[in-house]
Amino acid sequence: MAQQIPITPAARADGPAGPDGTHAVTPDLAYQRHAIVNVAYLGPPGAGDRGWVLLDAGIMGSRAAIEAAAASRFGPGARPSAIVLTHGHFDHVGALEDLAEAWDVPVWAHPREHPYLDGRESYPPPDPGVGGGLVARLSPLFPTRPVDVGARLRQLPEDGSVPPLPGWRWLATPGHSPGHVSFWREADRLLIAGDAFVTTAQESAYAVVVQAPEMHGPPRYLTPDWESAGRSVTALAALEPEIALTGHGRPMRGPALREALHALARDFAVVAVPRHGRYVEAPLRTGADIPASLAPGNPAARRDGPP
Questions:
Q1: Domain 5-294 is of which CATH architecture?
Q2: Using one digit for the tens of pLDDT, what is the confidence trace for 213-235?
């Protein structure tokens, strides 16, 4: 069975929840938990219409909560300039179609994720055989079919820039999905890791509720390529982030974060990879063929600027 890497609660990087349910991480980053997943709001409070960016789009049914949080944080009727995605799994795109239409915004994602975002392809089926708890056992019920925002889709540029987010770079971190990306801001060493690694035992319903801080690899029941996932964690650990916000669990900061992330990278095969499972015995190589031009951070995520 996969092991856990505890993180001291003192390493938490978030403040208490505000009236709208969001937690501040930095002056221009807040997140909101939607049942099992986090949504991020990038932009200073009061940024106004088109003055901010939504990162990922929650689970099905989260549209109203996202719109309410946006209005509270950025101003009544404030729409984002874009929606940016780490990847297209069901719990990250649940409100995507509705929000993209209502807000009339572009949706930015890695080209390897586009088939799952324009209606062409479904993801591989989840694997309940990885163990770890109730969420894993229920994973066959999770939807894998694609959403369709094809008319609004934009490709993240090959140079690693993120057009709606000056000062940020995207980093190719495949394994959990073919086009999974993380986002990095060198100025304050801020990492938004998506599901490349997470800070809760996502397979366990109890852990999801309690949210005790632990360092884990990507959610096991939806990860088809463990070799690529391990390389992605190694690349992110090399960044030495000061703060990391993941798709599941609380954001963490400082030496405790870095120590736990390095431990995960070093012992990934023992800590993260399940002993048994569909994609342990027959992996799908999601990241092996990503051209270098489309992977500026895998592992060439340089700490001193663009490659």
A1: 4-Layer Sandwich (3.60)
A2: 789 999 999 999 999 999 999 99
